[in-house]
Specification:
Number of strands: 6
Number of helices: 8
Structural class: alpha+beta
Strand content: 15-25%
Helix content: 40-55%
């Protein structure tokens, strides 16, 4: 015999299902902050990459940054071309020949301008290729990596080319560089540079 379910039980069951549904749709904190970094990236002024970075400490956003020219100077969009493209410089190399300051660097600099400590915070980096509108592995370059280490951040959460995210521990970076060297780094930004180094190891 089928058991009769009271209207009150039905309502309670529906509430439980609704709560479970909302929980399933609710993004994680890492996804939430990475989504904000994505919005920040929309301010980028680079032809090659749209990158946004935010720094979070004690569950509060304390700084943001996007890739763009130094304040009060002309950016690549205003010039109408990418200097590195014109010079045929591959991704991941010769950053001194670039008009832009990286998003990670700007987030750190903006925190300094506001007099805010980064110690113990996390950085979230979102990146895409504006030419294809595809997400990229938004791993920091060596210069940014060194700045992140010295700024005292704990974790770096990066968007990946498959639409996911990758979490790095800054302590792991330090340990890796203590045991090997910077050029042996596993997650190097810019494929041509990464492949070149791997060829040298063979």
């Amino acid at each position: 015999m089928k058991k009769k379910v009271s209207s009150r039980a039905k309502k309670t069951g529906n509430k439980t299902l609704q709560a479970e549904s909302r929980t399933a749709l609710r993004v994680s904190k890492d996804e939430y902050y990475l989504g904000i970094a994505r919005e920040v990236s929309r301010r980028s002024t680079c032809f090659r990459r749209s990158i946004g970075a935010i720094i979070v400490r004690d569950d509060q956003i304390i700084s943001t940054g996007y890739v763009g020219a130094p304040r009060k100077t002309k950016d690549s969009l205003e010039h109408g071309f990418c200097l590195r493209d014109r010079l045929n410089i591959p991704h991941g190399q010769r950053y001194e020949l670039c008009r832009s300051v990286h998003a990670e660097q700007n987030a750190i600099i903006n925190a300094a301008r506001a007099g805010v400590s980064l110690l113990g915070g996390d950085m979230f980096i979102y990146g895409r290729d504006p030419r294809t509108d595809r997400e990229i592995d938004a791993f920091p370059c060596f210069i940014c990596k060194k700045m992140i280490i010295n700024s005292g951040l704990n974790r770096v959460v990066c968007s990946t080319s498959d639409g996911g995210l990758r979490v790095f521990s800054v302590e792991d970076w330090i340990r890796d560089w203590q045991e090997t060297d910077i050029l042996d780094d596993t997650h190097q930004y810019g494929r041509p540079f990464e492949n070149e180094n791997q060829d040298k190891k063979k």
